[in-house]
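Researcher: Good morning. I'm working through a list of sequences from a screen, and I'd like to move beyond sequence-only analysis. For each chain I'm collecting a predicted structure so we can compare shapes side by side. This is the next one on the list. No need for commentary yet; just the structure.
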Amino acid sequence: MNANGGYRSFMLPVPVQITLSLPAELAEPGAAERARLLLALDAVRSERISWREGARILGLAPCAFLDLARDHGVPTDRVDLADLADDLTTLRLPVPR
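Model: Good morning. Structure tokens for this chain:
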């Protein structure tokens, strides 16, 4: 969240490389993508990013991300004002001032 209580409206991706030592049964081909998914879900859970930003980061449709978040117990009922403005624009409704 920013100083005004809202989420950051745009975050530039920064490449990060993480090296982990895992037991053989966890070192499967999809482990890196699963770690990326869990990091995004944790950022939404801790309110560092909005669920819409999480969907964008993972390249998912908003409804697919909401299903995924719900499956992982991540609350998504918080509405960011910027997201609301985007929704209203998409619906072509006046944005409240």
